[in-house]
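User: Please fill in residues for this 167-position structure.
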């Protein structure tokens, strides 16, 4: 993986990104802001599934309110995340935190969609099952862990020690 990352670092798109200081900062700022929107939206959806937020509204109403924000922010995050990874592939690909973050993000998206599916299968007046509420609680913790994992990428070796993919 490291050899691929080092090769990628020398490609024209990577050089264009990492040699333009303002572009890196713009990508980071945009990624961070949209991460806040994604995490906030994901948490609000999960909070409704648990019944701790807007319990007076049907889940579908809460979903329709936050889903566009979640989808839009995830799209922007994907674009800026890919550009940041392309700009410094060695740093990203050799960070355990990077891979844990991507796996956790995939899990968050999947679990959120499963909650929506469960809500659509149940009657409109039905509450979530205890199992679905446990999933939603885990989802809240997972969404909230994502920004921390992103921040940990820069300190990967110090945080993960021997588990870090860095040398």
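Assistant: Residues filled in for all 167 positions:
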């Amino acid at each position: 993986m490291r050899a691929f990352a080092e090769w990628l670092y020398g490609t024209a798109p990577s050089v264009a990104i990492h040699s333009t200081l303002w572009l890196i900062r713009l990508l980071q700022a945009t990624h961070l802001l949209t991460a806040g929107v994604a995490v906030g939206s994901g948490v609000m959806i999960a909070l409704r599934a648990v019944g701790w937020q807007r319990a007076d509204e049907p889940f579908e109403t809460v979903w329709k309110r936050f889903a566009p924000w979640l989808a839009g922010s995830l799209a922007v995050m994907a674009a800026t995340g890919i550009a940041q990874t392309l700009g410094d592939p060695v740093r990203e690909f050799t960070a355990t935190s990077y891979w844990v973050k991507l796996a956790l993000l995939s899990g968050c998206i999947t679990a959120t969609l499963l909650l929506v599916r469960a809500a659509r299968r149940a009657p409109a007046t039905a509450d979530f099952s205890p199992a679905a509420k446990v999933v939603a609680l885990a989802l809240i913790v997972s969404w909230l862990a994502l920004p921390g994992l992103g921040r940990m990428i820069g300190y990967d070796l110090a945080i993960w020690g021997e588990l870090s993919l860095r040398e």
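For context: The chain has a mean pLDDT of 91.
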